[in-house]
């Protein structure tokens, strides 16, 4: 069995490989192919991956390549995690929006729009290669903005496609921690779009425990500090548990002011952390210090985790100490990736929240829209499960953002300026034709090398 990771020289890859090694008996791959367009990053991240594999007795063969055909040929599973334009592109996405007084965030609003415009065409090119050289592979998309990318690939390719995000799974773990029950004992009704969803029920032994969480939200936020960005008043008004990314909608003005008042956007912060990390890793590895490199990697990834959403919410970063064990046994991104492979390979029914074609599950959206809902996953792939209705205020927001997504995908594929302008005008974080035009024109100018379809 062969697994390919496209964009595999990203900094999160080692945590995924560590989990793959640990769960090798249930996911018995014999070949891991890591593809990236950067030979320099392959060499650096590859050194850490090689060390992890050697340390565990080399349970599978690892190959590194910049040749996409070589990477995907014969693959059973393909994970995609690319970033067109790199961290520099993300920083531009965020600063352009902020320069017009609009939220600058990687996946939400104009930032996610710009990222989608330059990423979807590249992902479609990759998809054509996969269709020719690995037509039976399951393609699992981590590339952001995950919902938009998955929507484009499901509508414009024949790939066996699953989109994933670890935020909803993390919410399930948060709920389990608060209720002091095993995560496997909980079923949550969750519905919406990627980075725009709500928990509407929390079932434990046949009882809905969501009202208990809502009524005691102050205690819930103490157990799960990153959720302090939502006020108990808002949570009780909603009667739902929102995905953390809804902070950018419910507290739009505060988010913009917090980012403008900080020294760096999150994208600039990540650019600094990653650039420094790669430089220090190169220096350490040249001297043969793999253990030192692991320490540097762990410290940098801990800094990323500790500072997550702190700029946007105006909160202090966490103070969790770096731990290689915690880092390489994280059940978020890596655990979700492995759970998908395990469920499909072993034909073992597993309940996961995924981005899939709607197929009538969310009644107020089109059947071919991509939604984020609980799915039953086994050897046949994901089957979306029925979820309860959302209140009107959530329905209205989902419908508006989904309309934006449809236009954004069409613009990215066709290069239509009109569709791109309509998409940004519709988005509730912009909601202005003149403002949308200024933002769009800035993106087209600053990202010109990555947007040939608009020429």
List the SSEs and their pairings.
Blueprint: E1 2-6, H1 13-22, E2 31-35, H2 39-55, E3 61-65, H3 68-72, E4 77-80, H4 86-99, H5 110-133, E5 138-141, H6 146-156, E6 160-163, H7 167-179, E7 186-193, E8 196-204, E9 207-208, H8 210-215, H9 217-223, H10 232-238, E10 241-242, H11 247-250, H12 252-260, H13 266-286, H14 290-306, H15 310-313, H16 324-328, H17 333-345, E11 350-357, E12 370-378, E13 381-384, H18 392-414, H19 417-426, H20 433-446
Helix pairs in contact: 1-2, 1-17, 4-5, 4-13, 4-20, 5-6, 5-18, 6-18, 13-14, 18-19, 19-20
Give the structure's gist in a few sentences.
By secondary structure, this protein is of the alpha/beta class. Helices cover 51% and strands 15% of the residues.
């Amino acid at each position: 069995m062969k697994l390919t990771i496209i964009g595999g020289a990203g900094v999160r890859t080692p945590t995924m490989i560590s989990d793959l090694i640990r769960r090798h008996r249930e996911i018995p791959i014999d070949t891991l192919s890591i593809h990236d367009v950067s030979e320099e990053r392959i060499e650096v991240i590859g050194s850490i991956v090689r060390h992890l594999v050697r340390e565990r007795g080399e349970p599978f063969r690892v190959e590194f390549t910049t040749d996409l055909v070589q990477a995907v040929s014969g693959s059973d599973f393909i994970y995609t995690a690319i970033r067109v334009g790199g961290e520099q592109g993300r920083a531009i996405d965020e600063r352009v929006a902020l320069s017009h007084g609009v939220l600058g965030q990687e996946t939400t609003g104009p930032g996610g729009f710009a990222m989608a415009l330059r990423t979807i065409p590249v992902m479609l090119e990759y998809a054509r290669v996969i269709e020719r050289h690995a037509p039976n592979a399951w393609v699992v998309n981590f590339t952001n903005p995950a919902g938009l990318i998955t929507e484009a690939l499901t509508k414009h390719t024949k790939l066996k496609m699953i989109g994933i995000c670890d935020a909803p799974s993390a919410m399930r773990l948060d709920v389990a921690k608060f209720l002091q029950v095993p995560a496997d004992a909980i079923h949550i009704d969750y519905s919406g779009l990627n980075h725009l969803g709500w928990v509407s029920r929390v079932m434990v032994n046949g009882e809905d425990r969501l009202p208990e969480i809502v009524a005691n939200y102050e205690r819930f936020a103490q157990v799960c500090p990153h959720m302090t960005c939502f006020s108990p008043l808002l949570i009780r008004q909603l009667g739902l548990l929102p995905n953390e990314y809804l902070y950018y909608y419910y507290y739009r003005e505060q988010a913009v002011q917090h980012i403008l008042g900080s020294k760096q956007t999150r994208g600039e912060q990540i650019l600094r952390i990653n650039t420094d990390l790669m430089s220090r890793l190169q220096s350490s590895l040249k001297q043969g210090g793999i253990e030192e490199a692991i320490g540097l990697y762990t410290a940098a990834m801990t800094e990323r985790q500790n500072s997550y959403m702190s700029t946007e919410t105006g909160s202090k970063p966490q103070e969790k100490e770096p731990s290689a064990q915690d880092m390489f046994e994280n059940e978020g991104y890596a655990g979700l990736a492995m759970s998908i492979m395990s469920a499909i390979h072993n034909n073992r029914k597993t309940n996961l929240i995924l981005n899939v074609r709607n197929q009538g599950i969310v009644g107020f959206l089109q059947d071919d829209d991509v939604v984020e809902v609980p799915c039953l996953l086994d050897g046949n792939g994901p089957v979306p499960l029925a979820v309860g209705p959302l209140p009107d205020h959530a329905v209205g927001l989902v419908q508006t953002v989904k309309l934006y997504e449809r236009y954004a995908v069409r613009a990215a594929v066709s290069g239509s300026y009109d569709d791109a302008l309509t998409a940004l005008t519709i988005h509730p974080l912009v909601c202005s034709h003149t403002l949308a035009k200024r933002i769009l024109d800035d993106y087209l100018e600053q990202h010109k090398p990555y947007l040939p379809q608009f020429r």
